[in-house]
Every structure is written in structure tokens, then in C-alpha cells.
Amino acid sequence: MKYVVLVAYVLxxxxxxxxxxxxxxxxxxxLLGGRSVGPWMSAFSYGAxxxxxxxxxxxxxxxxxxxxxxxxxxxxGNAVIGSLLAWLLLAKPTRRIGERLQVGTLxxxxxxxxxxxxxxxxxxxxxxxxxxxYSASVYKGLGNMFSIAFGFDYTWCVxxxxxxxxxxxxxxxxxxxxxxxxxxxxxxxxxxxxVVFYIVKAAGGVGEGLRLLGTSEVGGTNMxxxxxxxxxxxxxxxxxILTSLGVLGMPQMIHKFFAIKDEKSIKxxxxxxxxxxxxLAGGAYFTGSFGRVILSKVTDPNTGSTLAALVNSKAMPMxxxxxxxxxxxxxxxxxxxxxxxxxxxxxxxxxxxxxxxxLSSSSVITLDLLGTIKPKMNPTTSLWIMRSLCIGFVVLSxxxxxxxxxxxxxSLMSLSWGTIAxxxxxxxxxxxxxxxxxxxxxxxxxICGMLISLIPPLATGDMSLAPYSGxxxxxxxxxxxxxxxxxTKRTALPKxxxxxxxxxxx
Length: 506
Prior knowledge:
By secondary structure, the chain is mainly alpha-helical.
């Protein structure tokens, strides 16, 4: 039955591709959907791009294992900061200034806002390079789930997923992805509700599961409370900042604000997106917190040890916690058809995220990097280059996925998010909301944020430092940009030009 569910999903995707593909799609239509995407599709597209197999498989499983029930703070942070605050703070000014400056990408915004082609080029390179490991982590999370649930070969799984994502993006552009994101977002909501139900049932109910999580044999001190275990507070706070505040600086998420229809749509999308995030992220991290309870009930037939013991001894990777929980029939007892729904849930989330990453990367290379070299490029030529780069990005991210098989999902995502958001969060936020930010201040934020995120994990070779350095990069950027701007305030753009940017021309 699970195969029937999977086939039905693939047929649904093919149907959407057929009805949304357009031969005469314009460059603006491909990238932004003509800036006409309504509230429901915008909100679901935002949420579906936010929560992929990286979050549900990699982050929720490993975080729940490390800090127990307090992992829920990440889910709450994702909803309140990553969704509600992001929409309230960024959506309207991004939509307004984007239209005034006629920009649809983050690097183009930097060029127009700060009069700096250099910043545009640097931003384009950072986005393209560091979205690659994030895409690789999406493949890894989904490939692991497919391998365990269906017994499919990992290599062919990720290749098939890449083809599915790239085909409908290549043919239909952003509007096609927004339509499929709405359908996939609906699947994700039903799927995560079912996940919570079956995992809680397998744990013996909420009360029993929390009781077991508090015992030394399964969990330990503070594993069943909202307080993190001893020594884990900073780690948890870093991950809340990374996965929540970091969204405000991620280009594939900001892209949704450039494309939304109007300000009336923004109000409705804010509510819808926040509820979506609360259900998805809250459900995923709550489920992940029961990992120790479920795996302590399952014995490995080869070693005679519990799966929990194998995770503790590092014989079983943390990336396999969630897939194992969801597919173990002896404990969880998930019906075959429901297992198919769970896999489709992860497939939906991951394909949505992949298309957002691919579109962001291909657009910055085409419009911002090549557009700087050849500024009068024909729009039709730009469109086909962008479509071709979509395929190229997929191939590169697949290669990185295979090369970094031994790197945990949480490390790949942390390095990617930390570096990109560390570089862009403060320059973009201040550029939208504060007239006084200068080119020097913004550039200092980009360079310092990138270096603060990269140096600790790369210099030491310890990728577990990525969440800490990424969170530090974002917070430091929020201080560096205004300080440098105040020191160089004489170089701010002329008042007349700022009046145009901020819509204050009388």
C-alpha cells in the first residue's frame, strides 16, 4: 500500500507539471511568478521551503536525542521568530522596496541599496557556494528515509528526487513551485499530525513517554522537562538562533516576500505561515524528543543491544533516528499506507526546499553575476541560462551529497545557514528599516559574518562548532553593521535617493 501512496504522489506532481508548464514564460514570471502569488500559496510555499527532511529527519531527531523535550524550544522559535517575526518585520518593506528598485534577488537589493556591484558579486558567490551543502543535506535526509522505508538504493533515490524537483522548476518556474508547495504543504500538515499520533502511542502516551524519558535508563536529568540538560543550554540556544533568526537572512525565504501579490495578502499570509510553522516544527521536535524512549524498546538482531545503545555508542548515526522510529513495525506499528504518507511528507517537504534553493542559486548567478559582466543580456537568453543553471546546481549538490556522506545532516545545514545568514541578516535587515546604514557598514557585516561563521569549524576541523559560530555570526552582525555605519555616516546615500527607496518622495 505504501507504494500506491508514493506512486499517487508522483502522478500528482506530473499532473501539476503538465498544467503549469508554460512555453512562453517571461523572466519575471519564472523568477517571481509575476509578483502575483496570493497569501495561501505564499504562506505554504514559505513553510514548505522552511521545513524539509533536514529539519524533520536530521535536526528533530538529533536535537531530541541530545536535549529531550526542551527541543520544543526550537520549534517554538521557528514559529515565533522564523515565521511570525519574519513576516511582520520583513514582508512589507521587502515587497515595497523590491518593486521600487525593480529587484527580485538579495544580491540585486544590495547593489541598488548600497550602490555596490562588488557587494552584489560577493553575495552571489556566497549564496551559490553555501546553498550547495544545504541542498546536499536535504538529499541525505530524504535518501536515508527512502532507503530504510522502501529498501531502495540510496544513490538512485537521491537522483530520482533531484530529477523530480528540477523538471517541474525548469518547466514552470516559481508559480509552478508555489502551486505544488500548497499541495505539498497540505500533505505535510496531515503527515506530521499522524507522525505525532503514532509515536506518542508507541511511547505509551504522553505521560508515560515523559516518565520514561526522565529515567536514567532512557533519558536522564531534565530530558523530560522544558529545561535543557546540564551543559546543553548554550547548544540549544545556538540552534534556536540558527534555525529561527537565521531565516531572516536566507535568500530562498526572502524571495517569497519579493513575489507576494500585495500588502493585503501579506497580512493573511503572516497568520497562515505562523500556524503552519507551529504545527510542523512543534510536531517534528516533539516527536524527536521521544527518540530515546522508542529506540530503547527496539533490539538490534545482530548485536542484541537496543538501538538506543547503538546510537549512544555511535554505531548508529543520529541521522537514522527519525527514519528508524517511523519505520519500525514491531514497536510503532504504523500501517503500511500511513508509512507511505510519512515518506511522502518528507518527499513533499524536501522537494519544496530543493526547488527554492535551486531557484535562488540559479537566479543570483544569472541575474547578479553574469548580469554584471553582460548587463544588457537579452531576457530570453537570461531565462534559458537560469533554467540551465537549475540543472547545473542540482548536479553539483548531488556530487557534494555523495562526497560528504559521513558528515551529519545537522553539521551540513548549520555551516550553510550560519554562513549565509551570518553574512546577510544584518545588512539586509538594516537596509530595509534604517536609512542610516552605509555601504561600509553593510560590507563589514557581510565579510565579518561570513568569517565568524566559517573560521571556528574549518580551522579546527570540528563541524560540531558550526551551530555556535553561525549563531555568533548573526548576533555579531547586528552589532557590527550599525557601529561601522555610524563611524562612516558621511558616506550614506543622499537624502533624495533614500526618499525614493523608502517611498517618502512628496
